[in-house]
Amino acid sequence: MILNEFLRKISSEEKHAMAAAPSIDLSGWMSEHLEQASPDLLRAMLSSFIEALMGADADAICNAGYGERTEARTNTRNGYRHRDWDTRAGTIDVAIPKLRSGSYFPDWLLTHRRRAEAALVSVVATSYLLGVSTRRMEKLVGTLGIDRLSKSQVSEMAKDLDAQVAAFRTRPLDAGPYTFLAADALVLKVREGGRTVNVHAMVATAVNAEGFREILGLQVSTAEDGAGWLAFFRDLVARGLTGVGLVTSDAHQGLVAAVGATLPAASWQRCRTHYAANLMAVTPKSAWGWVKALLHSVYDQPDAEAVHAQFDRVLDALAEKLPEVHDHLDAARADILAFTTFPKAIWRQIWSNNPNERLNREIRRRTDVVGIFPNREALIRLVGAVLAEQHDEWTEMRRYVGLEVLAKCRAALIEAATSEEVTLTAITA
């Protein structure tokens, strides 16, 4: 499949740019290398294909093929310059064509790393230079296709990445109103003061006015306490976070208190997945099967009225048999049923943090490679780069919430606010 892509690109370049002669006998070349079964086969293939592509690019700039005499020629080849290209197959010596007039530099080839991969290389390299798990870091650097890493290379790479991540983390949040917001934290390990400590990477995502998902921010805190979450949400509000109607998260007290302090107009939805785990902790093991089935029956109803009616029936069924479970469920009613304020079409996206699990898995996949970060800056660099890439991908995907559904959700919020005002007026009258 990869070979076909290369062949199609080379063929296209030949048609438009009269590719350099002599051309590669691809079938014979492939047969020869496959028969030899050389361990450097992939590296050799990459080198040959890349040089063929660069030759085609250079011919297009010269407006003539290699060695061709024609009045249409606008430039001439002037040898090659060699440059090491780091790939996952190893470091390849690439011959870049030189021109007599002007210059040719294949940016599409030599700036190949995505932000997250460059961040991963930078973090691994920083760990390597600081002497952290030297044997393991040498192995990781090798699998990333890097055979040499100097302190200046790492410093320059980190400087560029830090600027990109900082710009992403501090950008204005001007695509609101952000009707739905989800918050979560991941525990990661960092070396500080000569010992390994746990830190919490706090991440918030939201649905913007156009129905697309956004990653709003990232902060690292020593503890997942009220102070950390309060500072996080205050930063989001200062950057322009507005119009939040519902925040979905687990029941961490510091997080819930921070939401109430910084987003007073928003209601809070307790993640149904996290709540099920909390309920299981107070339920006898022998009874959890049918209690779980009862809980799930609440979420399977067709509308908000039916949800609340089923919840009442579940409470009645538990009142005598499992009073502790009954009380636990009754106390959480408003929190786990907050989603019913909105149309059913949006329920699955807002009643739990499950939509963020894929994002968390991607972060874990990258951070597990490092294991223990050498410092917090390295952690922010890698996680921030992963989040920035995911943010870009979300903007190119289809809408997470349709505009029609989103408009109904905003209308439901206005209706709920109006009803609450009327109720307060009647009470105070």
Overall description:
This protein is an alpha/beta fold. The protein has 2 domains: 2-110, no CATH class; 113-268 and 360-400, Ribonuclease H-like superfamily/Ribonuclease H (Nucleotidyltransferase, domain 5), CATH 3.30.420. Helix content is 55%, strand content 15%. The protein has 18 helices and 8 strands. The chain has helices spanning 2-17, 26-36, 41-62, 107-110, 115-129, 134-143, 151-169, 226-238, 253-262, 272-281, 288-299, 304-319, 323-331, 333-336, 347-350, 357-370, 376-396, 403-428, and strands at residues 77-87, 90-99, 180-192, 195-207, 213-221, 246-249, 267-270, 372-373. Strands 3, 4, 5, 6, 7 and 8 form a 6-stranded mixed beta sheet that branches. Strands 1-2 form a two-stranded antiparallel ribbon. The longest helix has 26 residues, at 403-428. The chain is elongated. Residues 1-22 and 128-135 have low confidence and may be disordered.
What is the assigned CATH homologous superfamily of the largest domain?
Answer: Ribonuclease H-like superfamily/Ribonuclease H
Which CATH first-tier class of the largest domain would you pick? Alpha Beta
Runs with pLDDT <50, length 5+? 1-22, 128-135
Whole-number count of domains: 2
Helix content estimate: 55-70%
Number of strands: 8
- Element-level helix/strand string: HHHEEHHHHEEEHEHEHHHHHHHEHH
What's the helix count?
A: 18
Give the terminus-to-terminus CA distance.
74 Å
- Based on helices, strands and strand pairing, what is the structural class? alpha/beta
Shape: elongated
